[in-house]
Amino acid sequence: MRVRSSRTVLLMLPAVWTAIAVAPAVGCRDEKTAVSSTQQESVSTRPTDQPSAAQQALDRMDTRVAVPLVPMMANHQKRNMRDHLLAVQEIVVAVSSDDFAAIERAAERMGYSEEVGQMCTHMGAGAPGFAKQALHFHHTADTIVTAARRRDRAAVLRALGSTLQTCTGCHAKFRQSVVDEATWSFLTSTPSLTGHAPGK
Question: What's the predicted TM-score (pTM) here?
Answer without folding.
Answer: 0.69
